[in-house]
Design goal:
Length: 312
């Protein structure tokens, strides 16, 4: 029998196939490297890198908490001469009182440097309304949900449940109010009084800034600060917002009242874009949250003092 493996005539097709395979892998490698470079470039691109004059958009969505990255961006917007105005797009039930205060103070500082206008879409309640009043003018839809001026501290007393399953808590503390209230006890006596003082102090500050910013007397503000929510139309009648409308109306006002050109591009500065092109961990986390009926992004729960409206 002849040995075909040594026959050059039979080696040529195999060599050609190997060369084609190598070329294919080189092309695939080049394409993968190109995709990686594009992804990294987008990932680390500076928000709002559009050149020329512009209007910045800062979106406040979901539950509010303190955010150093958001704070830095608001500070940078004040220094950016290309940004002629800032639109704060709000769709939030509120969040922590500290998060609302942080936004209020940052937007107050920004307002001193350039026009800032708030646009409430579906929801602008509690700490989100605290955010809105820091701007020069508030727009909302007729049927937006606005208001819920107030502060709360939530506690679950699971004592009966824990007794049923035979679990007891014990602790050693430096004082009678340390780490109170306990999960297995109701809020009573000095514990309730201390927490009520905490809530009242935050609430009084909230009422004061609403009265100051909206030009409403304190008694009138107190009458609106029982935690109620209002539609945009009701809020307009009660002077909690300035006008009915959306972003286009806000831009028209910026032009008529502040001289900002209507044809400037509106550039998103916050939230920071998540341009990661391959993130299985993020996909799995979002799928798990969806399976549990939880929001796909943001904190699952808030501990401590909150200024938040939520349907029950």
């Amino acid at each position: 029998m002849s040995d075909f493996s040594a026959d050059p005539a039979h080696l040529i097709p195999a060599n050609a196939k190997l060369r084609r395979s190598r070329r294919l892998w080189r092309v695939l490698f080049f394409l993968a490297a190109l995709v990686a470079v594009v992804a990294l470039t987008a990932r680390f691109a500076v928000p709002g890198s559009t050149s020329g004059e512009q209007i910045a958009r800062v979106s406040i969505n979901g539950v509010i908490a303190t955010d150093p990255a958001r704070l830095r961006i608001l500070e940078q917007l004040g220094k950016n001469d290309a940004v002629k105005a800032v639109i704060v797009a709000i769709n939030s039930p509120g969040g922590t009182t500290a998060g609302g205060e942080e936004l209020y103070e940052a937007l107050t500082a920004l307002r001193a440097k350039k026009p800032v206008v708030a646009v409430i879409s579906e929801l602008g309640a509690s700490a989100a309304y605290m955010t809105a009043i820091a701007t020069d003018r508030i727009f909302a839809r007729r049927l937006s949900i606005v208001g819920s001026i107030g502060v709360l501290y939530q506690h679950v007393n699971a004592g009966k449940l824990l007794d049923t399953i035979g679990i007891d808590f014990d602790k050693v503390a430096t004082g009678p109010l340390k780490s109170e209230p306990d999960l297995d006890e109701p809020m009573e006596g000095d514990v309730r009084a201390a927490l009520q003082g905490l809530v009242d102090d935050s609430y009084q500050w909230f009422v004061d800034v609403v009265a100051e910013r909206r030009g409403i007397s304190r008694p009138e503000t107190l009458a609106l600060s029982d935690g109620r929510i209002l539609t945009g139309r009701q809020a307009l009648a009660d002077r909690l917002i300035d006008a009915i409308g959306g972003e286009s109306d806000a831009i028209a006002w910026l032009n008529s009242d502040r001289g900002v050109k209507t044809d400037l591009p509106v550039v998103d500065y916050f939230p920071l874009p998540d341009n990661s092109w391959f993130s299985p961990g993020r996909w799995l986390r979002q799928a798990a949250r969806e399976g549990l009926g939880l929001p796909t992004e943001g904190p699952i729960a808030l501990d401590g003092l909150v200024s938040l409206w939520q349907a029950r």
